[in-house]
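Comment thread on ticket #2218

A.B. wrote:
> Attaching the input chain for the structure job we discussed in standup.
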Amino acid sequence: DVVFVHDQVAEEKFVADGFGIKRLPVMYNDFVLIGPKADPAGTKGKDIVAALSKLSKAAGAFISRGDKSGTHAAELRYWAMAGTASMGAGYKACGCGMGPALNMAASMGAYVLADRGTWLSFKNRADLAVLVQGDERLFNPYGVIAVNPAKHPHVKVKEAQRFIDWVTSPAGQANIAAYKIGGEQLFFPSAKR
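C.D. wrote:
> Ran it. Output below, let me know if you need it in another format.
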């Protein structure tokens, strides 16, 4: 009934193709490149494209979600921007969610792209640390879309709209802002009223 995701390009296409009614911004956080604290590939800094280029050349281990999620779509865009001939010999797509991908990276001493909210809530960090952050290209917006009942008549339009109205309302936005783990805010409200 509702699509609540973080791949704005795909979301806008979803609406343009008539599957969704309208995309509304809800919140944002950012992506971060996680890797071994020693950073053997020398990725540490602010530039995600330079970091992935270094990682590819160093043949460092990289765990990709490989699951067509918003995080995976962003990762593929960053690799394309890096213009590398390949993603490197150490590239492994797990076809899994963010938690399992982080667990694999922790057990293998590998690099992985994650959204900051998931990283902050992840407990099995082993020797991993945030290595790349602050690049404006790592901005990670989340949107909400009601599924179009003209294409999918079974959709509960009223209930979907009630959720959308709440999550974009001052009360919903306040709940998003108040959600913290270890005193750190995971998401930042961005609904426009």
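A.B. wrote:
> Thanks. Noting for the ticket: The first strand starts at residue 2 and ends at 5.
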